[in-house]
Automatic annotation (TrEMBL), chain A:
It catalyses: L-glutamyl-tRNA(Gln) + L-glutamine + ATP + H2O = L-glutaminyl-tRNA(Gln) + L-glutamate + ADP + phosphate + H(+); L-aspartyl-tRNA(Asn) + L-glutamine + ATP + H2O = L-asparaginyl-tRNA(Asn) + L-glutamate + ADP + phosphate + 2 H(+). InterPro entries: Asn/Gln-tRNA_amidoTrfase_suB/E, Asn/Gln-tRNA_Trfase_suB/E_cat, Asn/Gln_amidotransferase, Asn/Gln_tRNA_amidoTrase-B-like, GatB, GatB_C_1, GatB_Yqey_C_2, Gln-tRNA_amidoTrfase_suB_CS. Gene3D superfamilies: 1.10.10.410, GatB domain, N-terminal subdomain. It comes from Acetitomaculum ruminis DSM 5522. PROSITE patterns: GATB (PS01234). Belongs to the GatB/GatE family. GatB subfamily. GO terms for biological process: glutaminyl-tRNAGln biosynthesis via transamidation; translation. The keyword Electron transport does not apply. Allows the formation of correctly charged Asn-tRNA(Asn) or Gln-tRNA(Gln) through the transamidation of misacylated Asp-tRNA(Asn) or Glu-tRNA(Gln) in organisms which lack either or both of asparaginyl-tRNA or glutaminyl-tRNA synthetases. The reaction takes place in the presence of glutamine and ATP through an activated phospho-Asp-tRNA(Asn) or phospho-Glu-tRNA(Gln). The lineage of its organism: Bacteria, Bacillati, Bacillota, Clostridia, Lachnospirales. It holds the Pfam family GatB_N. SMART domains: GatB_Yqey. Keywords: ATP-binding, Ligase, Nucleotide-binding, Protein biosynthesis, Transferase. This is Aspartyl/glutamyl-tRNA(Asn/Gln) amidotransferase subunit B.
From TrEMBL, chain B:
This is Glutamyl-tRNA(Gln) amidotransferase subunit A. GO terms for biological process: translation. HAMAP family: GatA. Its EC number is 6.3.5.7. It comes from Acetitomaculum ruminis DSM 5522.
Length: 479, 486
């Protein structure tokens, strides 16, 4: 009989925090910039320089810890992780090993309607490294320390996940939570969220873990799903062939859909961690905890419940709107201004999402103001413009955040519902299309659609459809 | 009387009284440097041109009453592990043979604000690792009292320069006695302030949890005044603390009723008899002045050296890993690939004592040994601090020798590192416990070498050790160093 295998997965997720300045100096964390322009003696490891902790980093770490049900380590410290590599200017990374800031948390995930908790072993704070750039032309390697000292938190899960769906649900959960907290934008592609996958397989029913590998270089959810599938198969194959899985770090190549061994446990480095003597221990008193807790924004779960209750929005719609805090904020603001939650929701779920996808954007990058969407909803409700025109105007709002009232005015897009004008045009259309009129009379009710279309065309789309239908009905009945 | 006979405070007063110009003071120091430094080798770098140029600016600002500090206009020497902007800063190591910092240490900024003039950078044991100033890549420094003798270390260059009047005062650094022990060997006064008093920003780290910059001077008053200048709360150093009072104001306080503890453990085996007598005599004199003296058992003294060498080496192994040939400093001229570059650069760039401590430190932090060595050393450190806390609940100051002997012969200790390490027995625990300590000369031994007495105080109680040291200085009527031509 063929053996059945279970996959056991734990994740190490690095998240770049959204502080304005670096973790141990006042250099900017802004992305880009000419190489080594966002640097100072501290983040380039000059002799004699000393780190000073950015308080905001601790606040964000606490906020993420509280939102993921962790215990906050009230007396916590930094440690040095020693290893030689040129992207690391001091040849040690300031991180946390012995007393990480958060421990013993969990988040709830939902896959195919069933819920489960994924444990969080710990969250610790640390500094990012610089970037090595190999110059093929000159055959030399250059270092850019702009990223050196950018604050990170590493969220280490328990080995509680069993398949790619759970992994992605967990990552999505972390991402939304952290985005809601404003602690990071969590963009996988840009590297502000990075996940390393620890994976092992075992026979179903076994209570012992198999030997695990760690997979790096996973830049999208899709890559993660493929890597999990690939690694599960690779390990099962080894076991079936009677070979052993080697504990090692592997690098995923998403183009080749294959992973390569980077280093095995045997040549794993001894990081010689010890308490960082240049930084004093951090004491997080209960007042500080209370303040962070009080400043915590409404998270997704709370919003979902409230939306169903307060706005009477179906859960599926609410799920889409609350997927990002950006969208939820636009929704709430717009609803407040125009007083129509349903119409607001429709604009966001329909047109907004369509345009986001069409432009291959991230929801976080939406830049139109709720004021302009609210105005649009109002003028549509008043019948000042019809739906077709409204979509056209919305595209302008989405792209350039224009004021729809002014725009409609300037472009002369207001609906025509003046009966005299409409009657004249419709009469002409009816006269020109005797065949359609005949069809209509013979019971082909569809024919009216054609006549409406012709009218709209003649009116350059600006006619009020309700008025057109009414007048057309009257004229046809009179024929 | 020569200008070089003046103390730093006396000199500054004369400058402000227009009896002496800043330039004259600078030239007087350089006269000594040019006369003696070829032999003594106190300096790695001298800055005559810069100093003369700066003396004019400072003179103007003193004349305009913009600089009125106690030490305005005074020439000073700075230990070569303290960063000076655009001035070579080597830590007496080959690996920093071409390193020009882009910023000055906060302590250096403070002396410049005071209107003091940096004459140059003084020699030291490489990366402050040593007690003799013999491990410098730039040659040994000789003791001005007897040039066959070492000046002590690691701040040997600073202490010898003060003794030889090659400067009026100097900055040193003290990780395990590196100010106090050479002060004792060179017959000058040197203080290690409480950990956190002087910002470590710009001090190239050896053992970060132990390092402290401190003043070296011709007498207690100079040392107290310079300590006031360099101490400041610094946002750039997380371990920096705010100071509550001026050190200089405390030196003339009465010592009547002052409770002095004499740790029996400091006067047992290994202590040179002449040193012992000199220290005991000064204690007797203090008793005559109204101090209350009592012997007690400090305990744990034997554990201080091993705990110190484990902690200091562990921190050093990490602190010194940034010297890798990638970003600054020396890089091996020939190598193949990254790892070979690291290896060759560090093999060629560091001296043997530094390598020994890097290896020792890496070992005690290695997985499997961390608990047995490093963690145990940290616990020992905590216990040592506790035993001092107990002692300071009873005594205002603790008095003992600064070193077991007077200045050793050149070459004597390098062959036996363990013996050299044991020479730090009286000084390292102040660093482990963060305490302030001062060494003040009390007399000469039969060979004519200075003997220093060490006074330790509770954290932030520099006032107690300064006033005690001042009293000892008054009683001792200490002789002058002949080479200084004073």
């Amino acid at each position: 009989m063929e053996k059945e295998y279970e996959t056991v997965i734990g994740l190490e997720v690095h998240v770049e925090l959204a502080t304005k300045t670096k973790i141990f100096c006042s250099c900017s964390t802004e992305f880009g910039g000419a190489p080594n322009t966002h640097t100072c003696p501290v983040c380039t490891g000059m002799p004699g320089s000393l780190p000073v902790l950015n308080r905001q980093v601790v606040e964000y770490a606490i906020a993420v810890g509280l939102a993921t049900n962790c215990d906050i380590t009230q007396y916590c410290k930094f440690d040095r992780k020693n290893y030689f590599y040129p992207d690391n200017p001091q040849n040690y990374q300031i991180s946390q090993l012995y007393l990480p800031i958060c421990r013993n948390g969990h988040v709830e995930i939902e896959v195919n309607g069933s819920k489960k908790n994924v444990g969080i072993h710990e969250i610790h704070m640390e500094e990012d490294a610089g970037k090595l750039i190999h110059d093929e032309w000159e055959d030399c390697t250059l270092v850019d320390y702009n990223r050196s000292g950018v604050p990170l938190i590493e969220i280490v899960s328990e080995p509680d996940m069993r398949n790619a769906e759970e992994v992605i649900a967990y990552l999505e959960k972390l991402r939304t939570t952290i985005q809601y907290l404003g602690a990071s934008d969590c963009k996988l592609q840009e590297g502000s969220m990075r996940a390393d996958v620890n994976l092992s397989v075992r026979e179903v029913g076994s209570d012992k873990f198999g030997t695990r590998t760690e997979m790096k270089n996973l830049n999208s959810f899709k890559a993660i799903a493929r890597a999990i599938k690939g690694e599960r198969e690779r390990q099962i194959e080894l076991i079936e062939e009677g070979k052993k899985v080697v504990q090692e770090t592997r690098r995923w190549d998403d183009n080749k859909e294959y992973s390569y061994a980077m280093r095995s446990k045997e040549d794993a480095q001894d990081y010689r961690y010890f308490p960082e003597p240049d930084l004093v221990p951090i004491f997080i008193d209960s007042d500080w905890l209370k303040r962070v807790k009080a400043a915590q924004p409404e998270l997704r779960e709370e919003k979902l419940l409230r939306y169903e209750k307060e706005y009477d929005i179906p859960r599926d719609d609410a799920l889409i709107i609350t997927e990002s805090r950006k969208m939820a904020d636009i929704f709430e603001e717009t609803t407040k201004l125009c007083g129509d939650a349903k119409k607001t929701a429709n604009w966001l779920i329909g047109e907004t999402m369509r345009l986001v996808k069409e432009n291959e954007m991230d929801v976080a990058d939406i830049s139109f103001s709720p004021e302009n969407l609210a105005k649009l909803i109002k003028i549509v409700s008043k019948g000042e413009i019809n739906n077709i025109v409204a979509k056209e105007v919305f595209e302008e709002i989405f792209k350039n955040d224009i004021d729809p009232e002014k725009y409609v005015e300037e472009k002369g897009l207001k609906s025509v519902n003046d009966e005299g004008t409409l009657k004249e045009v419709i009469q002409k259309i009816v006269d020109e299309n005797p065949k359609s009129v005949e069809d209509y009379k013979n019971g082909k009710k569809k024919a009216i659609g054609f006549l409406v279309g012709q009218t709209m065309k003649a009116m350059k789309g600006k006619a009020d459809p309700a008025a057109v239908n009414k007048i057309l009905g009257e004229i046809l009945n009179a024929v | 009387m020569s200008l070089n006979d003046l103390t730093a405070l006396e000199l500054s007063k004369k400058i402000k009284d227009k009896e002496v110009s800043v330039k004259e003071a600078v030239l007087a120091s350089f006269e000594q440097i040019e006369k003696y430094d070829e032999q003594l080798n106190c300096y790695v770098t001298t800055l005559k041109e810069d100093a003369l140029k700066r003396s004019e600016e400072v003179q103007k600002r003193i004349d305009n009453n913009e600089l009125t500090g106690l030490l305005a206009g005074v020439p000073i020497a700075v230990k070569d592990n303290i960063c000076t902007k655009d001035v070579l800063t080597t830590c007496s190591s080959k690996i920093l043979e071409n390193y020009y910092p882009t910023f000055s240490a906060t302590a250096v900024e403070n002396i410049e604000k005071e209107g003091m003039i940096v004459l140059g950078k003084t020699n030291m044991d490489e990366f402050a690792m040593g007690s003799t100033t013999e491990t410098s890549h730039y040659g040994i420094t000789r003791n001005p009292w007897n040039t066959d003798r070492v000046p002590g270390g690691s701040s040997g260059g600073s202490c010898a320069a003060v003794a030889a009047a090659e400067c009026f005062t100097a900055l040193g650094s003290d990780t395990g006695g590196s100010i106090r022990q050479p002060s004792s060997f060179c017959g000058v006064t040197g203080m290690k302030p409480t950990y956190g008093t002087v910002s470590r920003y710009g001090l190239i780290a050896y053992g970060s949890s132990l390092d402290q910059i401190g003043p070296v001077g011709k007498n207690v008053a100079d040392v107290a005044a310079l300590a006031d200048v360099i101490s400041s709360y610094d946002k750039k150093d997380s371990t920096s603390v705010k100071r509550e009072y001026a050190f200089y104001d405390s030196i003339n306080e009465d010592i009547k009723g002052l409770k002095i503890g004499i740790p029996r453990d400091y006067f047992s085996e290994g202590l040179n008899e002449e040193v012992k007598q000199a220290v005991m005599n000064s204690v007797k004199e203090l008793e005559k002045c109204g101090a209350i003296v009592e012997e007690f058992d400090l305990s744990l003294v034997d554990y201080a050296i091993p705990a110190y060498y484990v902690i200091a080496s562990a921190e050093a192994s990490s602190n010194l890993s940034r010297f890798d040939g990638v970003k600054y400093g020396f890089r091996a001229p020939e190598y193949e690939g990254l790892h070979n570059m690291y290896k060759k650069t560090r093999s060629e760039g560091f001296g043997s004592e530094v390598k020994r401590r890097i290896m020792l430190g890496s070992f005690v932090l290695s997985s499997g040994y961390y608990d047995a060595y490093y963690l145990k050393a940290l616990r020992t450190k905590a216990l040592i601090k506790e035993s001092y806390d107990k002692a300071f609940a009873k005594y205002d100051v603790i008095i003992g020798p600064a070193a077991p002997t007077t200045a050793l012969k050149i070459g004597e200790s390098l062959s036996d590192p363990i013996k050299m390490y044991l020479g730090d027995i009286y000084t390292v625990s102040a660093n482990l416990a963060g305490l302030p300590g001062i060494s003040v000369p009390v007399g000469l031994d039969k060979a004519g070498l200075p003997i220093g007495v060490q006074i330790l105080g509770d954290c932030f109680k520099e006032n107690n050790i300064l006033k005690t040291a001042k009293k000892i200085e008054e009683i001792a009527a200490f002789g002058k160093c002949q080479i200084a031509g004073r």
